[in-house]
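User: I would dearly like some help making sense of a protein record. I have put the entry right below:
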Amino acid sequence: MYYTLSAHYAYKGRYIADFTIRADGTTKFGPSNRWGYFPSASLKWIVSDEPWMEKLKPTLSMFAIRPSWGRVGNQPNKDYLYTSKYGSTIKYLDMSAMAPQNIRLTNLKWQINTSYNIGIDLGFFDDRLNLIIEAYQSTLTDMLMESYRIPSNSGFATVPYRNSGKMRNTGWEFHINTN
């Protein structure tokens, strides 16, 4: 289940803002971590539409700056990891026996990806030549590690998932398009 709230605002067609918040709920986590809240915001300033840029229009037809920030969440592929599961096992003294089938993961939580981005759009000669330059940084926290190894004296060799680790990805992109 999820809920999304979005807002878009544009002023004079050259100052643009978008805001979103998403609330995701899932049974894959225990009651204390069931809901994840993921906001985002982006802005755009079309500098080439400013009156003081009018002299450059024949050559520079588009110049825009676009910063943005946002968060998204990831969840495991299995349901009800926070509950205990029992199943039958080999007989003991000619009687059926029950044994735990898993370890309860009551503290498992959302994997969060937080991203920052800044982009510049350039158009030349009535948009016959377009350039897009973007720089970004993305950070994963509480990474969901699958089949995480644990000490075997627990009776299990692995747990299905564990939040462990952090990873950062930084880069840039450059696009050229001609008409």
The first strand starts at residue 2 and ends at 11. The radius of gyration is 25 Å. The chain has a mean pLDDT of 92.
